[in-house]
Write a structure and sequence with these properties.
Layout lengths: L33 H4 L2 H9 L17 H10 L11 E2 L25 H4 L8 H15 L12 E4 L2 H11 L3 E7 L5 H7 L3 E7 L10 H9 L4 E5 L13 H9 L4 E5 L30 E6 L12 E4 L2 H14 L5 H7 L5 H29 L12 E5 L10 H9 L3 E2 L1 E2 L21 E5 L4 H16 L1
Parallel strand pairs: 1-10, 3-4, 3-5, 5-6, 6-7
Antiparallel strand pairs: 2-8, 7-8, 9-12, 11-12
Helix pairs in contact: 6-10, 8-9, 12-14
Length: about 475
């Protein structure tokens, strides 16, 4: 096989190599001598590895995840100047307005108490921790002897901060993750050296399903931590009972499960009755089962700007996760924590989830029908989240891969995310040139209906070109 003239998929930092105004960067302590500069063996040594060269100590390639990279490209086309004229179907954010029928109105002001002026506990204030525990007990632990307490909950400043805290307390281990999955896992799995991240591709032909047999295989080859989103980003598929319970039975006393459940409320499998998908349903003992659940206000409460999330798990883990916040992120905003407590009343949340599911299911159906009408192949309709894993095969060659389709959409003021970003590649150990995710994009139907219509009109113009 020849690799001559092979083109790489992308430059993850900016898309365009940075041109320095200096010919070379200066060395830290002294200029190289003429003897070193003119020496062939010295030049070979310098060029053999980046660490042998003079450098600034920073790695600009760590600057952005896939969604941010796409947004930066949109800025180059005017998105920053006139965002109201764009359809941002790339960012994983739900509509935040108070327009959804049956949904409670979000606070317009936040009272700042004297406590809110002080440093807060890095594990979160007790009142919110107790409210989260009560919500999980009411919705997922009814009739079970083992219940969550406030000590089983840690409040964190957003989902990414929660994932970073979990990564910081993991022991030496093989950590299994699945492809495709959430783009931000990529950097988190690259930063920490206390575990080795092992990819496990899911089959397109099997609708990217995670089966119990797949989990058993991972554990059999030595994996002791498993990280996954459920419901799954970007495919919009959910693992629910009885399969979810079987997976937890397989992992019990063998592996730690880290369950990213931010889309648990976007569940369309139970006729929009408000049921939230969660591994908390199947836990036998809240302090013995090695299951960490992460969720928050961001997605299902439609408050991404508040940066309030939580981790639920065994007290021993939660104590460590709370403590490491002191050197990682400093903890979540106290006034917003206080304001969140009334929102988590279990009956209020159930009513909210019914409204949410009905509204977003209707948007999903509208988007699927329009895209099918344009000729897109959508064999499996998402049963959760607010994402479509959109297959581009069958489109003209010029736009049949995610990156070129993304570029064509930018010309029509539409943002989607190329599928390549969901082929997680921690520390860039694999060649992604022939990625199975190349011919997909992630399409978000999180925005308001007017934005979806604008975006679909733009995609229709792309196809007509």
């Amino acid at each position: 096989m020849s690799f001559n003239n092979r083109k790489f998929s992308m430059n993850r930092s900016s898309g365009v190599p940075r041109e320095s105004t200096r010919l070379t960067r200066r060395f830290s302590t002294h200029e190289p001598s003429a003897n070193e500069t003119n020496s062939k063996i010295h030049r070979q040594f310098r060029n053999a590895h980046e660490g042998h060269r003079s450098h600034a100590g920073l790695d600009p390639t760590r600057a952005s995840t896939g969604v941010i990279w796409c947004t930066e490209r949109a800025y180059e086309h005017g998105f920053l100047d006139e965002p109201e004229k764009w359809a941002n179907l790339g960012q994983g954010a739900p509509e935040v307005e108070d327009d959804i029928e049956g949904s409670f109105e979000r606070p317009h002001t936040v009272d700042v108490t004297m406590t809110g002026r002080e440093y807060g506990p890095t594990a979160g204030i007790k009142g919110l921790r107790a409210a989260v525990a009560n919500l999980y007990n009411a919705h997922h632990r009814e009739g079970k002897e083992s219940k969550y307490s406030w000590e089983n909950v840690c409040i964190v400043p957003g989902g990414r901060a929660g994932l970073i805290r979990i990564a910081a307390v993991l022991n030496n281990a093989y950590l299994g993750f699945f492809i495709p999955d959430y783009t931000a896992y990529n950097e988190m799995l690259s930063l920490f050296k206390n575990f080795a991240a092992i990819p496990s591709p899911l089959a397109e032909s099997d609708d990217y399903s995670i089966h119990p047999d797949k989990i058993a295989e991972e554990i059999a080859r030595g994996t002791s931590v498993i990280l996954t989103s459920n419901p799954r980003n970007p495919t919009g598929k959910v693992v629910k009972n009885p399969e979810l319970a079987e997976i937890q039975d397989i992992c019990r006393d063998r592996a730690t499960l880290v369950m990213d459940e931010f889309y648990g409320g976007y569940n369309y499998t139970s006729n929009c009755d408000g049921t939230t998908i969660s591994a908390a349903d199947n836990i036998e003992d809240v302090d013995e089962d090695d299951v960490l659940i992460i969720d928050g206000l961001t997605k299902r409460f439609r408050l991404p700007g508040w940066r309030i999330a939580w981790i639920v798990g065994p007290k021993e883990f939660i104590k460590a996760i709370g403590s490491c916040g002191s050197y990682l992120d400093g903890g979540a905003n106290v006034p917003f924590q206080e304001a969140a407590i009334p929102m988590l009343e279990p009956n209020k949340v159930l009513t909210e989830m019914k409204a949410l599911q009905t509204h977003f299911r209707d948007k999903r159906d509208y988007v699927v029908n329009r895209l099918r009408g344009m000729g897109f192949k959508i064999e499996s309709v998402p049963d959760s989240t607010f994402y479509l894993w959109l297959d581009l095969e069958g489109l003209p060659d010029e736009i049949s891969d995610g990156l070129n389709f993304f570029q064509a959409c930018l010309e029509e003021r539409v943002i989607v995310v190329p599928g390549i970003f969901f082929d997680l590649n921690p520390s860039k150990r694999r060649d992604l040139f022939d990625s199975p995710c190349h011919h997909f994009v992630r399409f978000s139907y999180g925005p308001k209906m007017e934005t979806l219509k604008m975006g679909l009109d733009g995609i229709e113009r792309v196809l007509k070109k």
